[in-house]
Structures are given as C-alpha cells and as structure tokens.
C-alpha cells in the first residue's frame, strides 16, 4: 500500500512514467519520518520542512499540508505500521524531458511505510565513520532528491566497513552523509550552524533542546577536522539513527573509544521522549 498522489493504492498499481522529473533529474524533495508505537514523531516539523524544501525549489505541492497529513495517517492506519519509517517525496511531475520547469505538470506525491527496528546495537556500541570531501551543492538545507553526493560518501564508508561518512568542506566538518554531526569537548557540545551547508536536522534541533534542558552547554559553530579528531566524544543524529555515538573516524579512536558520558545523557533524555 502506498500514497500515490491523493489515493492509497497497492504498490503494484503505482506507475511512474520514464519522464517523471524525479526519475530523470532528481527534481523533487523528500522526508523520512520515524513512527514509534504507531505515532509519527515530530510530524509537523517534517511537513513544514517538506513544504519549505518544495518552496525553495519553486515547486508547489498539489494539495494542502492538512490534506497530506490526513493521507499519511490513513496510510499508517491501512499498513498497520507500528515501528518504522514513513517515506514521503514529491516530484515536479511528468513532462517531455527538458531542464526548465514544464508549463503543465502536476507534482506527484508518493509516500510509503517501512517497518524497521530502532538501531539499538549501533546506539549502544557506537559506530565507525570515515571522512570525505563534501562535494555536494551549496543548498544542503533543501532536502532534495538529488542524493548522489550522499550515495558516494556513504559507499566510501561502506567500502571501509564503516556506517557513516563525515563530510568536510574547506577543512570544516559540515555533517554526515545522512546525519548531523556533533562533537563534545570539555563538556561543551558543538555542531555546525543551521545554514545552507547542512540539512537543518529535526533530531539535531531536538538534541540541542535536550542539551539546554540538561544544562549541557552547546555551540552551533563550525569546527574543523582537527577538532573532530581531538574531541572527547562524537555522535551523529538523524530520524532513523536518533543519537548514535561515533567512536572511530578514519581508523582513529575518538576520546576513549567508547560512547562518552555526554552522549549517554543525551541518549537517555531522547529515549524518554519516545517512550
Ligand atoms: N536523513 N543531514 C542529512 C544530509 C540528512 O539526509 C539527514 C536525514 C539528516 C538528519 O536530519 P533529521 O534529523 O531531520 O532526520 C542530516 C534521512 C533520515 C535520510 O535521508 O534517510
């Protein structure tokens, strides 16, 4: 079952034209929303970001967000999703192939559910990462369907037996290929500012709010790769990974080489939000 435009249909009945602009140009935007106990987590923030991403690429959604929200609830109900992800995208639609916007094309919304367990092993033990140059475009604040930069980075990590690639632009740590990156130094949490060089992660925001509640000082300021290797702790955040420690980068141990106390406190506070 999936949401196709404004209808819920069987996946086998969904038809994507070869000239769908998402297929040919990556011309569209998307969201990934986590579902806990049948309830979408921070749905409003995801829908607002979806609308903003669409607006930034001058794509008007085919119907209002309120209607989309209703369709998503209906989809979750019909698929019986309890624990997993809700994937949502909009393409600029189907039209004869030419780069500029088609005069007449109805944007196509698609959403489907994927049951999946929380990555508890990774969260408990920590993961390893590699660094790689951030070769993406300069509007990483838009959750665009153009994901080749992320795909290549993640594959570099996978080739080295690691789970994430940390992207470095002009010596600065921007974010992960599909996560935001934080370090902890002398009790202070650091993460890149929410500008055009990173996705404004919803989990990043939640983590900063939790830090404030826990009276952990936090700075949304750029830091370089030397600071990453010199950090006491490092962790990544995302909808699917939540808060996950990074214990090794490029084969080098970060801090003690096991998940650190500040990361643990934030993870525990996050856990309370979802249980
Ligand atoms: N990734 N940075 C990038 C480049 C991302 O693609 C994501 C999300 C994040 C974290 O954002 P959030 O906390 O809002 O999920 C940061 C999603 C989960 C994905 O592509 O699967």
From TrEMBL:
Originating organism: Paenactinomyces guangxiensis
Gene3D superfamilies: 3.30.470.10, D-amino Acid Aminotransferase, subunit A, domain 2 (3.20.10.10)
Similarity field: Belongs to the class-IV pyridoxal-phosphate-dependent aminotransferase family.
SUPFAM superfamilies for this protein: D-aminoacid aminotransferase-like PLP-dependent enzymes
Reactions accelerated catalytically: D-alanine + 2-oxoglutarate = D-glutamate + pyruvate
InterPro entries: Aminotrans_IV (IPR001544), Aminotrans_IV_CS (IPR018300), Aminotransferase-like (IPR036038), BCAT-like_C (IPR043132), BCAT-like_N (IPR043131), Class-IV_PLP-Dep_Aminotrnsfr (IPR050571), D_amino_transT (IPR005784)
Record EC number: 2.6.1.21
Complexes and interactors: Homodimer.
A single GO molecular function term of this UniProt record: D-alanine-2-oxoglutarate aminotransferase activity
Protein name: D-alanine aminotransferase
GO CC term, one of those recorded: cytosol
Cofactor(s), names only, from the UniProt record: pyridoxal 5'-phosphate
Origin superkingdom: Bacteria
Gene giving rise to this polypeptide: dat
Keywords, comma-separated and alphabetical: Aminotransferase, Pyridoxal phosphate, Transferase
GO biological process: amino acid biosynthetic process; carboxylic acid biosynthetic process; D-amino acid metabolic process
Main enzyme class: transferase
Role this protein plays: Acts on the D-isomers of alanine, leucine, aspartate, glutamate, aminobutyrate, norvaline and asparagine. The enzyme transfers an amino group from a substrate D-amino acid to the pyridoxal phosphate cofactor to form pyridoxamine and an alpha-keto acid in the first half-reaction.
